[in-house]
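User: Um, what's this?
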Amino acid sequence: MFDLIKKIFFLLFLFIIAFINLTCRKSPVQPDDYERFAFTFEDASCTEAWFNLKLNNLSKPVMVKLYRDNFLDKTFNIYGTNDTVFYIEKLLPKKSYEVYIEVQPANDKFYRSNVIRFTTMDTTTNEFSWQVWEFGSKGSSALYDVAIIDENNIWAVGEIYTEDTYTWDSLGNWIEPYNAVHWDGTKWELKRIQFYTFCGQQHTGSYPAKSVFAFGSNDVWIAMDGSQVVRWNGSTQSQPICTPVSINKLWGSSSNDLYAVGNNGNIAHWDGRKWTKIESGIENNFQSIYSNSSSRQLQEIIVVASEEFSNLPTELIKINPQDKTAISISGHNLPAMMKDIWFKSGKRYIAVGNGIYSTKKIDIPGSWKREVNNNINKWFTTAIDGENYNDIIVCGSSGELLHFNGYRWKNITYQAGLSNINRLTECKIKNGIIVCVGFTTDGKGIIATGRRN
């Protein structure tokens, strides 16, 4: 009996000790820690992940330790800002991770954050089924730009000369060349978009078109190789609209927020009623314009200026969408002759032209690094487009065509049957469809479409 009582008291003692430890032990994350800072997940690619840390007036400098799957991944200090985006890299595609941080304000202890669980993106396949079309049977035909609305609605623009153009018909009518091609899901249809011979005068002609940008099937903007644009409403075009710039590229968020960039550092903005010129402060020719905004950041618009076959430096200009001013991005280490840019705002930027370069922080001087080596990128590149971190294409001279699946780059020029092409001038990707345009060595316009297998 006495032994039984001893056992009962012993078990009761163990219960009391366990209860005291359980109720008095400090939680890894105290409630007041959440009031000191906020640690949140922003985005992930196949191999990287981005996080945001907001500090609530903690004493600087603040040391931050980031742990991935309970192992220390990186340590860094925050000196001025209270809102910091940072990243981890060398992750694996389609893999789940757990991360947390420890934050130590100046002259204080470490405070631990909540645990964030996330999964990286999966890779995409770079296997596509290809079709190639040629346009033009005399002269020097070429296509310069393309816009994908959907798989049954694609526009390409340029200049196309056939046997029955640039001549007189049996009734004595002058037959003009074509300057656009439209895909309706079944066939390509050659079109003649009319521009003024001289801006503002009544006489029009189907002069070469340089750029196309589509907001939808009933809202397509086409720019001539000059200073005019027209708007296609799904069945007819508008009267030409004169612009204060000679246009190389169009980009916009809507038909009331459209930008045109061109030669000699010229930029203009259309607000739905009128064009307004934006002073860039440079004289180089603008080659491209692109924007991709995130939920956290304001819209970021970047313009690339350079001169092909010239050692003049590449210049990057950022347009402020609020006050429509242009600001130079100084201190970058991109080489001369860069042509185009694609990015996820604040996270990943890729520029193409005289090589393919990337950076995660566009405003940090000297941060651009060579993205693709010469064994994969063999020729000068002219354009880039992407749907996400894991689906990016680049095209260029000699039919150069590359695809990034989120983990590695692959040259798919021969897969697409484009090795005999003189130059691909533009490429777009949307919903697993790639469309490239350009011209052949024997003076024909070219369109190549790839559908993901």
In short: Confidence is low (pLDDT under 50) at residues 16-31. The longest strand covers residues 421-430.
